[in-house]
């Protein structure tokens, strides 16, 4: 289907059905352009909580759409492709995590939002990369903490907050793929550049960074810092918003270990959504996210605690 037809049909259906399109920064440029709101996990959760639309089309991955449904049980929440997973969420299964948690009965369980509703339901509090440090610091120092599912973010938080965290061994396939050797090579050729990295990256990448933060944190850093060249160690979709807001700055995506022609890192799960799937999803009002009410209420509690603290 032709792109301009798809765009006009999506806009028509959106108005007709009182729908809102929420898109993560890692979505394709076409989807970011047609979205009503583009943000990171925390911003999208807040937007999902306050929208008065009848239908939320969540252009992101499954756990994000599921979080929107947990917050909006009476709204129809759609995901353009139901197979949009996440290596962090998919690598932390309920039964395994329950056994893991049972080994640490006295620990406060903090989970990164990149996990399923079943894992959220087993948590005391949820966090995103924007508020994780604040959430950890809100827990009394007398309490021990178990953190899941991202070991890289967990290690970073442990250093920042000077707390020993028990970590679940999960990781993001995109942020773990950055090549330190290639990054150093690029930096040698651009010695005035500043490196901005997401804390899901491995510690050897974080050690090189001038700035470490969430996706929206990286966006703000690049917008406001005086440097003119930046090497960006996160998913390459963020470059679209940056190119629009700071066209005068040079942005270099951090290279991944794997040989690739664009030398950048893209999340295959995020990019599984397309403009055509978005159109079909709005037209057919599916795939729709559904969640058992008992599980929803259990998962809502740690998300609400996070939102109150954010
Ligand atoms: S970039 Fe990583 S954490 Fe984000 S959705 Fe993709 S696999 Fe999951």
Summarize the structure.
The protein has 310 residues and is of the alpha/beta class.
Keywords:
single chain; 15 helices; binds iron/sulfur cluster; Rossmann fold; 12 strands; globular; alpha/beta; 310 residues; NadA_sf; four-stranded parallel beta sheet; 3 domains; Quinolinate_synth_type2
SSE layout and pairings?
Blueprint: H1 3-16, E1 19-24, H2 29-34, E2 37-39, H3 41-50, E3 55-59, H4 62-71, E4 76-78, H5 87-90, H6 94-102, E5 108-112, H7 117-121, E6 125-127, H8 132-137, E7 145-148, H9 151-161, E8 165-167, H10 180-189, E9 194-197, H11 203-206, E10 211-212, H12 215-224, E11 229-233, H13 238-245, E12 250-253, H14 275-284, H15 293-309
Helix pairs in contact: 1-14, 3-4, 4-15, 12-13
Bound molecules: iron/sulfur cluster.
Iron/sulfur cluster (SF4) is lined by residues 26, 61, 86-88, 114, 172-174, 235, 267, 269-270.
Word description of this protein:
Belongs to the quinolinate synthase family. Type 2 subfamily. Its EC number is 2.5.1.72. Keywords: 4Fe-4S, Cytoplasm, Iron, Iron-sulfur, Metal-binding, Pyridine nucleotide biosynthesis, Transferase. Pathway: Cofactor biosynthesis; NAD(+) biosynthesis; quinolinate from iminoaspartate: step 1/1. One of its GO terms (molecular function) is 4 iron, 4 sulfur cluster binding. By secondary structure, this protein is α/β, with parallel strands linked by helices. It has 3 domains: 3-85 and 270-290, Rossmann fold (3-Layer(aba) Sandwich), CATH 3.40.50.10800; 88-172 and 296-309, NadA-like (Rossmann fold, 3-Layer(aba) Sandwich), CATH 3.40.50; 175-253, Rossmann fold (3-Layer(aba) Sandwich), CATH 3.40.50. It is built from 15 helices and 12 strands. The chain has a 4-stranded parallel sheet with strand order 2-1-3-4, sandwiched between helices. The chain has a 4-stranded parallel sheet with strand order 6-5-7-8. It has a 4-stranded parallel sheet with strand order 10-9-11-12, with helices on both faces. Helix 11 (203-206) links the parallel strand 9 (194-197) and strand 10. Helix 1 runs parallel beside helix 14, helix 3 (41-50) packs parallel to helix 4 and helix 12 packs parallel to helix 13. The longest helix has 17 residues, at 293-309. It is globular, with a radius of gyration of 19 Å. The mean pLDDT is 95. Bound molecules: iron/sulfur cluster. Residues 26, 61, 86-88, 114, 172-174, 235, 267, 269-270 line the site of iron/sulfur cluster.
């Amino acid at each position: 289907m032709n792109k301009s037809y798809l765009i006009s049909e999506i806009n028509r259906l959106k108005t007709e059905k009182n729908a809102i399109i929420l898109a993560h920064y890692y979505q394709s440029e076409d989807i970011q352009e047609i979205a009503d709101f583009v943000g990171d996990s925390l911003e999208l959760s807040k937007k999902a909580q306050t929208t008065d639309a009848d239908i939320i089309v969540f252009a992101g991955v499954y756990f994000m759409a599921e979080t929107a449904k947990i917050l909006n049980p009476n709204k129809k929440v759609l995901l353009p492709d139901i197979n949009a997973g996440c290596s962090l969420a998919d690598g932390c299964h309920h039964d395994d995590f329950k056994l893991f948690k049972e080994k640490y009965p006295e620990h406060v369980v903090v989970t990164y939002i990149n996990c399923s509703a079943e894992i959220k339901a087993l948590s005391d509090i949820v966090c995103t990369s924007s508020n994780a440090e604040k959430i950890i610091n809100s827990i009394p120092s007398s309490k021990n903490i178990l953190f899941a599912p991202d070991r890289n973010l967990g290690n970073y938080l442990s250093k920042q907050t000077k707390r020993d965290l028990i970590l679940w061994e999960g990781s993001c396939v995109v942020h773990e793929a950055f090549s330190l050797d290639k990054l150093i090579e690029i930096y040698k050729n651009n010695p005035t550049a500043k490196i901005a990295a997401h804390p899901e990256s491995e510690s050897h990448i974080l050690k090189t960074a001038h700035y470490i933060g969430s996706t929206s944190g990286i966006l703000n850093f690049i917008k406001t810092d005086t440097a003119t060249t930046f090497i960006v160690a996160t998913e390459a979709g963020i470059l679209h918003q940056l190119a629009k807001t700071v066209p005068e700055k040079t942005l270099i995506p951090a290279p991944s270990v794997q040989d690739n022609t664009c030398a950048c890192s893209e999340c295959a799960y995020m990019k599984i959504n397309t403009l055509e799937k978005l159109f079909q999803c709005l037209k057919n009002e599916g795939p729709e996210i559904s969640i058992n009410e008992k599980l929803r209420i259990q998962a809502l509690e740690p998300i609400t605690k996070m939102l109150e603290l954010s």
